[in-house]
Write a structure and sequence with these properties.
Layout (H helix, E strand, L loop, with lengths): L9 H6 L8 H21 L3 H17 L6 H8 L2 H9 L22
């Protein structure tokens, strides 16, 4: 367990602070998120202004959300993340047509 935060061991330091009473699956998901997010920042050498722009973007998206409008789902769609989650949760044989989330071409119960 890493006690102190350093650039080299940043993810380990953060993940070491996850409470022992945390749900096991939540711990797995959040630990992986932290590892990948920290690896991304290191890979692109994220600058402070870039980080601030990202925070502003996420803040604005959150402020636009309402009961009728969910901007983070639209962001997930834009990044291809919604399709990836659908593909993971609805794996098909190699010769099958590609998955699609609900949309104009969705047909309930399609083979």
């Amino acid at each position: 367990m890493t006690q102190f935060f350093s650039e080299a061991a940043s993810a380990e330091a953060v993940n070491a602070r996850i409470g022992e009473d945390a749900d096991e699956r939540l711990r797995e998901v959040m630990s992986a998120l932290v590892r990948h997010l920290h690896a991304f920042a290191k890979e692109v050498q994220l600058t402070q202004p870039e980080w601030e722009t990202a925070i502003d973007f996420l803040t604005t998206a959150g402020q636009l959300c309402s009961a009728e409008r969910q901007e983070f789902i639209l962001l997930s769609d834009t990044l291809g993340f919604s399709m990836l989650v659908d593909a993971i949760n609805n794996r098909r044989p190699g010769a099958a047509t590609e998955n699609t989330v609900f949309g104009p071409f969705h047909v309930a119960g399609a083979p």
